[in-house]
């Protein structure tokens, strides 16, 4: 499927960054403003490192298997039906949550940019994006991989433009001090923002086609590093200008202070970041239904694209609520299961494509870290509704 495609490692890095950088990018400044810059930076560094280790462990699990599945297939292979259903729930909940969040925010950004010129409702713009992205998902991985390189390049340029617009307005007095009471507040949003496990099996296809599987860890760590630096830069720029006025989606707060000129740069970042994530996550969900559930391609596509549209039209959830609970719960349970797969895969007679060894004590500590985050996010979300 990918034979003859040049620059495979670059494409893999672009796809992984494109998967991770999405709606979470716009939620991070808000939680930085609420928890304090120091706590936000610590969360980015620690969670980024944990995610990089977890993705590397998952990549080793994936390369040990003869068959290529999605997350569900590997859960069934290592846990049987008991673990399979937990994997089904966490994975599908997470993927749909991401698609919903992207549709909500991209619809809003398109509305901010184009409504003054051509009119139209915010919902109409959201539906338009959903339709265009859904069409691209039906085309497949090769087209998306090529598109991701352009999208990531455009994303980095857009962040540069945003920096030029905001740096003159930066003020250190706007940067909030740390609040120990909020030490875990950024956890769910940041974990969501780094989430990219769904694309690891597809990256195996991409790298294996060019015999580059030994580069898997390098691809993961480079991608996570670039993603983390992008998040830090964006959060510091937004909070440094907006301060306590930082909005849930970052751009609205900047618009109040800098005017409409900031909307185009911010919208470009959001549409590129979240649009790319919508594509690769939608592809992963389609592959899950097609390869793990053995459904026809048509049914797989419909199951992938329609639920997000229905929830979006119903207007049941807000942007940050989706990010926080989906990131912590889905990312947390997936993290626990991935490390358990990794531990059990050590008995697999098939050799891994690369060396990556962790003692069982380290595995349990990582699992505990994920579970603590799940409990905190659930309690925090329940408290908001009580």
Give short descriptive properties of this protein:
membrane, transmembrane, Amino acid/polyamine transporter I, cell inner membrane, mainly alpha, globular
Query: How large is the radius of gyration?
Result: 20 Å
What is the number of domains? Answer: 1
Report the mean per-residue pLDDT as an integer.
83
- Given the C-alpha coordinates, what overall shape results? globular
Rounded to the nearest angstrom, the distance between the terminal CA atoms is: 51 Å
User: What is the percentage of strand-forming residues?
Assistant: under 5%
Number of DSSP strands?
A: 0
Query: Tally the helices: what do you get?
Result: 14
- Helix percent reads over 70%
Q: Report the CATH architecture.
A: Up-down Bundle
Structure characterization notes:
The protein has 386 residues and is mostly helical. The protein has a single domain (8-385), classed as Amino acid/polyamine transporter I (Up-down Bundle), CATH 1.20.1740.10. It is 78% helix and 0% strand. It is built from 14 helices and no strands. It has helices spanning 8-20, 23-35, 37-64, 71-118, 122-137, 141-166, 187-194, 200-209, 216-242, 251-258, 261-292, 297-314, 319-345, 360-385. Helix 3 (37-64) crosses helix 7 (187-194). The longest helix is centred in the first third of the chain and has 48 residues, at 71-118. It is globular. Mean pLDDT is 83; it is low at 1-6.
